[in-house]
Design goal:
The chain is α+β, with helices and mostly antiparallel strands. The protein is 59% helix and 13% strand.
Length: 128
């Protein structure tokens, strides 16, 4: 019974976080930044109180340093870099914080191709 109740509460928490972040996005588009910060703060508090992970969809839209909702193009800059390793760089224009998100899917594809090539080489050696 306790687990059922816990699941239900977590589901409600996720719904409320989603609602608050949607409201924050709408207010950010209008330019009401004080209200946006408050919505983000409340959403993060709900997640911490319920001990649940913040949804990835919204997590990348919040600056970890200043707590601002990042509206790409308005108060955040997004760039794709390929030096060293392919990654996306998100810069908060309010506080200057930089976030790097690696492009893992592409990296995994390259690894898979290399493995397939090695297997083909081994198979060709075995056949000879």
């Amino acid at each position: 019974m306790k687990k059922f109740l816990e699941k239900k509460l977590k589901k409600i928490a996720y719904e409320r976080i989603d609602i608050l972040m949607s409201l924050a996005e709408e207010e950010a588009k209008k330019g009401n930044w004080d209200r946006v910060k408050r919505y983000v703060y409340l959403a993060r508090r709900i997640a911490m109180k319920m001990r649940i992970r913040f949804p990835k969809k919204w997590k990348r839209r919040i600056c970890k340093k200043c707590g601002t909702f990042l509206l790409y193009g308005k108060n955040a800059r997004v760039r794709v870099k390929s030096k060293r390793y392919p990654h996306v760089v998100i810069t908060c224009l309010d506080c200057g914080a930089i976030y790097r998100i690696p492009m893992i899917r592409e990296k995994k594809e390259r690894r898979r191709k290399k493995l397939e090539e090695k297997l083909k080489e081994k198979n060709s050696m075995v056949e000879e």
